[in-house]
Amino acid sequence: MQPSTVRTLSDLRERFVEQLADVAADRQPRGLYEPIEYILRIGGKRVRPLLALLAARICGDDEELRAGMPVALAVETFHNFTLLHDDIMDDSPLRRGQPTVHERWDVNTAILSGDLMLIQAYEHLCAVPVRGRIADLLCTFNRVATGVCEGQQFDVDFEVRHDVSIEDYLHMIELKTAVLLGGALELGALAAGASAETASHLYAFGRLTGLAFQLHDDLLDTFGDGVETGKLTGNDIIRNKKTFLYLKTLEGLNHTDKQELIHWFSHSPADPATKVARVTALMQQGDVPQLVAQLRDEFQAEAYAHLDEVKGNPRYKQVLRELTENLLQRNS
To answer: 159, 182, 227, 235: most buried, per Cβ within 10 A?
Structure first.
């Protein structure tokens, strides 16, 4: 990214984190609010709130970020609420390298603190200064939040289904991942007073970018360098996750190889090294990584076409484009 873009994103992120620190600070009872402070403090790249802030700036938000900041806080609080509850569902011991809330405290605490985070997300939205837009913001947020929950359930269902199609998988990741990226942009635009058309184009840009982002993530999980990603290479294969890579590979195999792939995904050997090696070989046999990368790039090209239709501040449009390109070129 250009130095000016890095500085802009760094400034936006710093100002956002300052505001985020006050969400649960010093509030009582501590057994309810401390887990919220904890999960928000160990946050990652803050992509979703940055998208909300950039959309607001594109659409005319002022230097004080009066319109965009409440939306950014709402999006990040909601996102972390979903992670907190997802960790319970998955019985995950770690989140971002730190103990999950239900491990550090207990399941009941994680459920209750998560419930409050969802309420706080609505409180942030209701703090948007353009009062006439709050109804639109709440309707948009409800649509996005419902999609995320539906996507999570589809993902759970896919673990035991044997008839998952490529279309099913793309629909699932659209709901679970892409709609919140699109929603962050749409909400930021609406808060800043943008037209419905502009907000719609920004939502489409985020949704398509989210699809490209998840496909890139699938590629990194299976074919990335574990040292760079900080994750166990082939973890999706080890967990028998029916990703686009798996489904596309299954589609192109002959009967014998197809049965072998299904066999590998029906059990979990104590030493997964042979399984990972053989499954990745079957994927490469049909040039599946290249096909996934091609679809990723097609989604992103379509996303940029929507961004080109957005009328707004060209400087922040360029920052948004460079942020997106950086995410899709990452190795971790």
So the answer is: 182
